[in-house]
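Journal club prep — side note

Before the paper discussion, L.F. wants everyone to see what a predicted structure for a comparable chain looks like in C-alpha cell form. Sequence:
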Amino acid sequence: MMKPEDFYTIPLRLPNGKVIRVEQLTDPQEIRRGMQHREELPEDRGLLFYHGRQGFYSYWMYQVKVPLDIIWIDSRKRIVEVAHQAQPCPGPREACPVYGGGAEAQYVLEVYAGLAKANGLQPGAQLEF
C-alpha cells in the first residue's frame, strides 16, 4: 500500500538493485525551481527532471539548502555524467558554480550527496524508471 508521501513519485532502480522514489518534474517552472528552498532530501528520495529532448543541460545550486549529487541520464536511461557533492550556494547568483552540461542528456536526477558514490553510479551505468 502506498504511503501519502509516495503518491506523486515513481520508483527508480539503481544498478545494484536499490530502489529510491523520485518526484517527476516536467513543468519548466518546476524544473527551474528544483530543490530551491527545500530543507531536506531524504536518502530514499530524489527529483527526476524530464527534459523534452536530449540536450546539454547545466544545473546550479543557487538557493538550494542541502548538498546533492546531480546525475545526467540519456534517453536510454544510461548515466552520462555525475557531479558529486554539489554544495549549496546562497548567492549571489553570479557566485554560484554551474554543474554538468558536458554530455547530452534527457533526464537529470538529484539525490542526497553521497548516494552516487555509495551505490557506484558512474557514466555507463543503467537506471530503470
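L.F.'s comment for the group: The first helix runs from residue 28 to 33. Keep this in mind when we get to the figures.
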